[in-house]
């Protein structure tokens, strides 16, 4: 029996880019949905239970860090942060808020796919480990 494609929730305030990434991820075998606000992301996360969140640290109203904290506490899904800022402090703040990895633009799509595969593999392995 074929394994179900992992679901990735793309959370970007730029709806055109969000659509691009959902189509791009589907080409590589992932199921994907897009949200453009923190509120939409919360609803979709509760309903669809993604395996990975691709979260833009530049969401309006500084909503990304609180959303990251909330998702990291309420789910076992991996959180891939993306940012257009080259500031180390922005990436560090995202990782401290519960992100698992942070990619700074510009990044190559091959790098994006490699990070996604790595995060999903680690998440899948951690879920299979017996409790201590």
Number of helical segments? 5
Task: Give Rg in angstroms.
Answer: 14 Å
**Helix-residue proportion:** 40-55%
Q: Give the integer mean of the pLDDT values.
A: 89
Spatial strand order of the main sheet: 2-1-3-4-5
Beta fraction: 15-25%
Overview of the molecule:
By secondary structure, this protein is an alpha/beta fold. It contains five helices and five strands; from the N terminus they run βαβαβαβαβα. Strands 2-1-3-4-5 form a five-stranded parallel beta sheet, sandwiched between helices. Helix 3 links the parallel strand 3 (52-56) and strand 4. It is globular and about 40 Å long.
Considering the chains and any ligands shown, give keywords for the structure:
132 residues; disordered C terminus; 5 helices; five-stranded parallel β-sheet
What is the fold's blueprint, element by element?
Blueprint: E1 7-11, H1 15-27, E2 31-35, H2 38-48, E3 52-56, H3 64-74, E4 78-83, H4 88-96, E5 101-104, H5 109-128
Parallel strand pairs: 1-2, 1-3, 3-4, 4-5
